[in-house]
From TrEMBL:
Protein known as: SAM-dependent methyltransferase
UniProt keyword list: Methyltransferase, Transferase
Gene3D superfamilies named in the record: Vaccinia Virus protein VP39
GO molecular function: methyltransferase activity
InterPro entries: MnmM_MeTrfase, SAM-dependent_MTases_sf
Keyword RNA-binding: no
Domain of life: Bacteria
This protein's record includes keyword Methyltransferase: yes
GO BP, sorted A to Z: methylation
C-alpha cells in the first residue's frame, strides 16, 4: 500500500540513524516518535510543554526497556539549552495531542525558532521530518509559516521535499523533509 506521510517521515529518518546518532523529538506527545528514535539512535532529546506527554512517553520507553531518551518539560524553542552536539535526525509533529487539551497547539513563532535551531545543529547528511497537521484553528497560519520558511532555505545547503495527499478531502496531514547538504 502507498506510504502515508507519517510512515515516510520515519523511513526518511531511519535511513540515517545508527547507534552513534543524536536525535531530537521536538513534539513528544504520546511518545510514538520518541520510541521510534530511541530504538535506533544513541540518545534522544524529546520536548513537550505538557506533563501528560512526559508521563505517557516515559511509560512507553520503560515498557520497551529503553533508557536512552531525555524528556524535557519545556518548549522546543529552548532546545539549544539542552542539545549542543550535532543532531543526526529530528522530527516535529505539529498541531495538538488528540487525547489531551486541544487548545494546547504548536505555534508558528516558536515552531520556526525551534526548526531554525535544529537546522543550525543538524549534521551534514542529517535529516529533519516535519509532519504538518493544520485542520485546527490556527493550523493554516502555522502551515504557511513553515512552508514559507523551508522554501527560502538556500538550495546549496539544504535539500527539501514535500509529500502530500492530492485527492483526500478536508485537511490531510502532510510531510516536509529536509536534509543538510553541507
Ligand atoms: C501532534 S502532537 C505530537 C504527537 C507525538 N509526536 C506522538 O507521537 O504522539 C503535538 C505536541 O506538541 C506539543 N507542543 C505544543 N507546543 C509545544 C512547544 N512549544 N514545544 C514542544 N512541544 C509542544 C503539544 O503539547 C503536543 O503534545
Amino acid at each position: 500500500m502507498i506510504k502515508r506521510p507519517i510512515h515516510l517521515s520515519h523511513d526518511f529518518l531511519a535511513e540515517v540513524l545508527d547507534s552513534e546518532a543524536l536525535a531530537v523529538d521536538a513534539t513528544m506527545g504520546n511518545g510514538h516518535d520518541t520510541l521510534f528514535l530511541a530504538q535506533r539512535a544513541k540518545l534522544v532529546h524529546a520536548f513537550d510543554v505538557q506533563e501528560q506527554a512526559l508521563e505517557k512517553t516515559s511509560q512507553r520507553l520503560a515498557e520497551a526497556g529503553l533508557t536512552n531518551a531525555r524528556l524535557h518539560l519545556t518548549g522546543h524553542e529552548h532546545l539549544d539549552e539542552f542539545v549542543t552536539e550535532p543532531i543526526r535526525a529530528a522530527i516535529f509533529n505539529l498541531g495538538y495531542l488528540p487525547s489531551a487539551d486541544k487548545s494546547i497547539i504548536t505555534q508558528p513563532q516558536t515552531t520556526l525558532i525551534a526548526i531554525e535551531k535544529v537546522l543550525n545543529l543538524l549534521e551534514v547528511g542529517g535529516r529533519l521530518s516535519i509532519m504538518i497537521y493544520y485542520g485546527h484553528e490556527g493550523g493554516d497560519v502555522e502551515k504557511d509559516a513553515v512552508l514559507d520558511f523551508i522554501q527560502k532555505l538556500p538550495q546549496e545547503d539544504f535539500a527539501t521535499m514535500l509529500y502530500k495527499p492530492l485527492n483526500q478531502i478536508n485537511t490531510p496531514p502532510f510531510l516536509v523533509m529536509v536534509e543538510r547538504l553541507k
